Amino acid sequence: DGQSQKLEKAKITLNDCLACSGCITSAESVLVSQQSHGELCKLLALNKVAAAHQQKLVVVSVSPQSRASLAARCKLGLLETAQKLTTFLKSVHYVFDTTFSRNFSLLESQQEFVRRFHRQAEDKKALPMLASACPGWICYAEKTHGSFIIPHISTTKSPQQVMGSLVKGFFAEQQHLPPDRIYHVTVMPCYDKKLEASRPDFFNQEYQTRDVDCVITTGEVLKLLEQEGVSLADVDPAPLDSIGHGGGGSGGYLEHIFRHAALELFGIHVGSIHLKPLKNKDFQEVTLERDGEVLLQFALAYGFRNIQNLVQKLKRGKCPYHYVEVMACPSGCLNGGGQIKLEGESSKEELQQLERLYESLKAEIPEENQAVRELYQHWLGGWGSERALEVLHTRYHAVERANSALNIKW
Ligand code: SF4
Q1: Based on the domain organization, do 332 and 258 belong to the same domain?
Q2: Which segments constitute the Iron hydrogenase small subunit domain (predicted)?
Q3: 20 to 30 A Cα–Cα from 55, which one of 41, 198, 294, 347?
């Protein structure tokens, strides 16, 4: 009516946060502040004065998206960046690459999809299966659509949390150390990964330790470099560490699961996959057809606008997909809120540059990675074993909003 009216002050707690990376850097946020590059520096300083039996073995696992962001900023190649970063971080003991743990996430996701496909007749929520690698999306799903959407979400752990299980499980055993004597840091493209690492599901009650103790963003690594007055370009390269014998890049979840399901369920070998953009380039789909019949229909939905459309389709019972790769950030993790902003270039060019670098990673077939096969065989008791399910999968929790103001629940 043209009158102005003073609105009540809005109160926002951490439980209202959808972890979109927009403002989660706030100093008040306890969960996030427990995980910063300052914490890592404190730990390294403590390690220097601690008695030998109290020192922690420090392991850093770097995501490929963070490497791409640092490479673009420092105008270096991806491998060179990884090798120089290893030298810079050598005050810690081991530097790993999370593309290794991503292999496990991909393999578990593909098997989970086939299991769900077979039980779709008796379980209406088996499909579509929705990806679980993005904690921003998981946080949104748990807080806003709770028990309705949770059964659709893949139980496979994200590459960060698989790495947590590998480091505090397999690697700890190899080193003859209890998990709490290892301090595990990951370098990730977003703040949401800090919230993910803080979930009670990833806390080891017996040893009172988290699978990932501290998450730092790519931007925080740059800060560390600047604090030390180091330019990555001037650092000598060092050989890369590996948990097993290999590592390497890997494709996206959608492509990988699509290929596997086509072969396993219908005996069809899929060559290159052509995604068809729908409303925008962050909502694309691909179908597998035989004699005009649609056998598989997959989509990717990036960014909250597309996620909301997807959820609406699901609620109306009009979602035609068998699988959807859901990511909270438009353009996915390369565009995460914790990545380095390139100076003097528009964000579009910056993103294209990052995409080119990231795509230059050699795609690897997880099934063919010898180290992955050995770990499945000797540590996890084989494909699809009880132990693999226990170690590589997780659970989700609907958050009750009514009493969310004081309790931080997941
Ligand atoms: Fe983080 Fe990637 Fe999800 Fe963005 S899309 S919130 S960077 S995990």
Answers
A1: yes
A2: 344-400
A3: 198
Name the residue at shortest CA distance from atom 3 of ligand 1: 134
**What pTM was estimated for this model as a whole?**
0.87
Q: Which residue has the higher pLDDT, 403 or 51?
A: 51
Cβ atoms of residues 188 and 338 within 8 Å: yes
Index of the ligand 1 atom closest to the CA of residue 189: 7
Q: Is the CB of 332 under 6 A from ligand 1?
A: yes
- Report which protein residue has its CA nearest ligand 1's atom 6: 136
Q: 333, 335, 339: which to mutate for ligand 1, most atoms within 8 A of CB? A: 333
Query: How confident is residue 29, by pLDDT bands cut at 50, 70 and 90?
Result: low
The strand ranges marked E within 213-303 are 214-217, 276-280, 283-290, 293-302
Q: Over 80: is that where the pLDDT of 249 sits?
A: no
Q: Please indicate, yes or no, whether residues 349 and 234 belong to a single structural domain of this protein.
A: no
Domain shared by 98 and 180, yes or no: yes
Domain CATH code at residue 36: 3.40.50.1780
Q: Mean pLDDT lowest for which of 25-34, 126-135, 338-347?
A: 25-34
DSSP string, 364-386: --GGG-HHHHHIIIIIS-STT-H
Q: Is the CB of residue 192 below 6 angstroms from any atom belonging to ligand 1?
A: yes
* Euclidean distance between CA atoms 212 and 231, whole angstroms: 27
* pLDDT of 47 over the 80 cut: yes
Domain boundary among 215, 248, 281: 248
Q: Is 409 inside any structural domain?
A: no
Which residue has 């390497």 as its token pair? 248
Domain extent, residue 313, equals: 104-156+251-366
